[in-house]
Amino acid sequence: MEKTLVILKPDCMEKRLCGAVMDRFQKAGFDIVACKMMRLTDELLRDHYAHIADKPFFPALAEFMGSRPVIVAVLQGQNVIARVRELLGPTDSTKAPKGTIRGDYGTDVSVNICHASDGTDSAAAEIKRFFKAEEVFA
Ligand code: TYD
Questions:
Q1: Is 104 domain-assigned?
Q2: What is the CATH number of the domain that holds 48?
Q3: How far apart are the CA of 108 and the centre of ligand 1, in A?
Q4: What is the longest distance spanned by two Cα atoms in the chain?
Q5: What is the tens place of the pLDDT at every residue in 66-113?
Q6: Whether residue 115 lies in the annotated active site
Q7: 125 lines ligand 1 (CB under 6 A)
Q8: Residue 65 lies in a domain
Q9: Which pLDDT score, from 0 to 100, does residue 123 have?
């Protein structure tokens, strides 16, 4: 069984869309095997976004992601990494088709409702970054 990490971002929290977003994941057949609420520190964000830390948009992104507590969760199921990315739609919400989570609820390329791991290696690293082994009920 594959696992992926999702973060319900500050805009998802502010718009009270956590239930709607989780509902899509659950209706697609995926199980929540870990879940917590936390405020992302600068240190965590530098780690999580290490691959884009040199981009000009990083400071604004880090400020947004740390602007209020978020919900971090691990989802489990067959092909969950790719399927959850499909359910989200492309990074830029303005280009995401209606029917995708970002297309229906997102604002733009930064304010886009939900993060999801983009591959097997990143999923494993991200789950480890946010959860202790005993917090994952897989
Ligand atoms: P990326 O890994 O390219 O997208 P995804 O979230 O779909 O995996 O980018 C990570 C995050 O960086 C993205 O969710 C929002 C932010 N971002 C910006 O703020 N501006 C940008 O131009 C891009 C490409 C990303």
A1: no
A2: 3.30.70.141
A3: 10
A4: 39
A5: 999 999 999 999 999 999 999 999 999 999 999 999 999 999 999 999
A6: yes
A7: no
A8: yes
A9: 98
Query: Which run of H or E residues covers position 47?
Result: helix 42-48
How many domains in the chain?
1
Give the pLDDT of residue 27.
98
92 CA → ligand 1 middle, Å: 8
Can you read off the two tokens belonging to residue 114?
């939900």
Whether 58 is in a domain gets the answer yes
Domain that holds residue 66: 2-78+115-133
pLDDT value at position 69?
Answer: 98
Domain for residue 46, yes or no? Answer: yes
| Candidates 114, 115, 123, 131; catalytic one | 115
H or E element that contains 87: helix 80-88
Which backbone phi and psi does 125 adopt, to 5 degrees? -65, -40
CA-nearest residue, atom 1 of ligand 1: 91
Ligand 1 pocket residue status of 110, Cβ below 6 Å:
yes
57-69 tens-digit pLDDT: 999 999 999 999 9
Atom 22 of ligand 1, nearest CA residue: 109
- The C-alpha atoms of residue 50 and residue 44 are separated, in whole angstroms, by 10
